[in-house]
Amino acid sequence: MAEKKTELVSFRATPTLRAALKAAAEGEKRSQANFLEKLVLDYCEERGIGLPPAQPPVTRIKKPARPPVPSPRTRKTGR
Predict the structure, then answer these.
(1) What would you measure as the largest C-alpha separation in the chain, in angstroms?
(2) Closest alpha carbon to 10 in 41, 30, 39, 32
């Protein structure tokens, strides 16, 4: 299973760089995010930069549901 994408990466770019990214991604029929991802991963592979192992998915423990609180109308009284 592929590693879940949970990290947000944001940076400022010049209009020229943004236009170049858009054109390059369109030329590869990729989104800009996917194009940058492939570019970085290919760069690391070509230069022997090891990637850290994928982190196991975080499992969240669900809290048990609290029992419903009876309304005053349905609450039994000792009368």
Answers:
(1) 82
(2) 32
